[in-house]
Amino acid sequence: MKNKTSFLPQEGEARPSRCPDNSAFKQQKLPAWKPQLTIAAVLSSFFLTGVFCLSVGVCLIMSANSVREIQIDYSDKCSDCSKLRENSSNWNKECHCSVNFMLKEDILGDVFMYYGLQNFYQNHRRYVISRSDAQLLGRNVNIQKSYCAPFTTYRNGTPMAPCGAIANSMFNDTIDLFYNLNSSVIQVPLLKTGNSWWTDKNVKFRNPKSYNLSSAFAGTARPPYWQKPVYLLDEEDERNNGYVNDDFIIWMRVSAFATFRNLYRRVRRIRQFADGLPAGNYTFHISYNFPVTKFKGRKHVILSTVVWSGGSNPFLGIAYVVSGTAATLTGFVITVIHLKLRKKKTFFQK
User: Fold this and answer.
1) Phi (first) and psi of residue 309, to 5 degrees
2) Which one of 91, 123, 299, 310 is most buried, by most CB atoms within 10 A?
3) Predominant location of this chain (predicted)?
C-alpha cells in the first residue's frame, strides 16, 4: 500500500489547480450590454408594443369577420335516426335524413365542409392516452401492453385494429351535399383526401406492409362501434384505407375543448362550382350513424371559407387587442406617476 505522502506533489511538479482557464469566456470578461432604463425608453416600449398589438388585433378581427360561414344543427332534424341510434343493437341498420337550406349569396373561393360536435369531451386523460402509436405505425405489437384497454381484444382473443377509445368512438356520419338547380339536383363534388396534416399522413400513420390491406389486417377485427373494418373505410379509393384514411387521421387528433369542429370535405372547384358555391337551394343528405343523445350532445355541419389568418375564430385578434390595450394603459399610468413624482421633486427643491 502506498504511503499517504506519495499522493502529494513532489518537488518540481506543478501543483494542480481548480482555477478555470484564463480566457475571456471562462473568466467572464466578455463584453456585455446593460441597458439604462430611462423614462423615455420605458414609455416608448410600452406605447410601441400597444400600438403594434392593437394594429395586429384589429387586422385579425377584420380578417376573421370576412369569413363566409353557414352552420346547420341537424341533431333535431334527424330525430328519428337519433332515436334509432340510442339502442346499440341497431348498429347495422341504416338511417338517412335530409336537411334543406338556402344560400342567399355566393360563397366564393375555396369552401371547406366541417362536422362539429358539442358536449363531447375528448380531453379526458384516460381517453387521450387510449391508443397505440406503435400499432398506428403499422408495427406488429402486443396491444395488451398498451393503454387501449378495454378496447384491446375481444373475448375470443382477436385483437382490435385500431385499438383504443379514440378510434372506437370515431365520427362516422356520411354527409353529401346537393345543389337544387331549377328542377334538377346536382351533387356537389367533394374531396375526401388531402385534408389531414402532411406529418400525420406520412410520418405518424402507416399501414402494415403486405401485398394487400385485407391480408395485412388478417387476424384482427374492427372496433365494437364500427360498421366496417379499417381496410374498407373508403371503398372508392384504395389508397385512402387503413390507418392512412384521412377521416380517421383527423379524428385521432383530439380536441382540447368539448365543442369542436373537424375538417370533413373540401368542395372540388369544377363545372358550376369552379368559383365556389353559387347562391341557391341546397340539401344535405346524411347517413346518421354517430349517436349523441346519451351524452346530451349536438351535431353540426359547417360550410366555411378561410382567409390568410385562418377560419372565423376571432380569439387571436381579441387577445392581441386586449394585450395592446393593457400595454397602452400601463404606459399612461407610468406617465401619470412620473409626472406626479417630478412635480414633488421640483416642489421640494424649491
Assistant:
1) -95, 0
2) 299
3) membrane
Domain boundaries, position 81? 70-306
Cell of 294: 346519451
Question: Percent helix, strand, coil in the chain (nearest 5)?
Answer: 35, 20, 45
Which helix (H) or strand (E) covers residue 213, if one does? helix 213-216
Kindly give, in sequence order, each residue whose CB lies less than 8 Å from that of residue 302, ignoring residues fewer than 6 positions away. Answer: 69, 70, 71, 72, 113, 114, 115, 116, 261
Question: Around 110, how many Cα atoms within 13 Å sit in the side-chain half-sphere?
Answer: 10
CA dist 13 and 75 (Å) reads 89
With respect to residue 38, please indicate whether it lies within any of the assigned structural domains: no
Predicted confidence (pLDDT) at residue 2 exceeds the cutoff of 60: no
CA distance 337 to 202: 58
pTM: 0.81
Which cell is 109 given? 373561393
What is 125-136 written as a DSSP string?
A: HHHHT-S-HHHH
Degrees to nearest 5, angle at CA 60 with 59 and 63: 85
Angle at 36 between CA 34 and CA 37, to 5 degrees: 125
Domain count, the chain: 1
Cα 151 to Cα 159: distance, rounded to the nearest angstrom: 9
Q: Which three cell numbers stand for residue 73?
A: 344543427
Domain assignment present for 14: no
Task: Specify if 5 maps to a domain.
Answer: no
Residue 65 in any domain: the answer is no
pLDDT of 16 = 58
Query: Quick check: 299 and 73 in contact, CB under 8 A?
Result: yes
Question: Mean per-residue pLDDT for 52-80?
Answer: 92
At 219 the three-state DSSP class reads coil
Using one digit for the tens of pLDDT, what is the confidence trace for 188-219?
Answer: 999 999 999 999 999 999 999 888 888 999 98
